[in-house]
Write a structure and sequence with these properties.
By secondary structure, the chain is α+β, with helices and mostly antiparallel strands. It is built from 2 helices and 5 strands, in the order βαββββα. It has a 5-stranded mixed beta sheet. A hairpin with a 7-residue loop joins β3 and β4. The longest helix is centred in the C-terminal third of the chain and has 9 residues. This is PilZ domain-containing protein.
Amino acid sequence: MEEVALNFNDGKELYKCYMPFLKNGGLFIRSARVFKMGQSLALSVTLPDTLEPIVATGKVAWVSPLGAQSSNPAGVGVAFIDDKHGLSDRIEKLLGGMLGSAEATYTM
């Protein structure tokens, strides 16, 4: 399983990448690397309020290739599969009221 490390320095970038509409949550990973639909990934995510990364596994739920029609960056949406460390809950606590915001994200 391929490992991907993500470091979020501020809540605004985390908000743009977080996908609360997926069953167990997920993250958009900005990347020019090619991933396949359904590919399993080991995520190592460092949130703005933490020093130690939180580990979760996920599957690629969609791919946004380089030069996609929207203005969104290239990357993949990864749905959390195994979130035994509560990554999704911790992200939602950090984002709080931002989750209801109309501000654009990299996702849907």
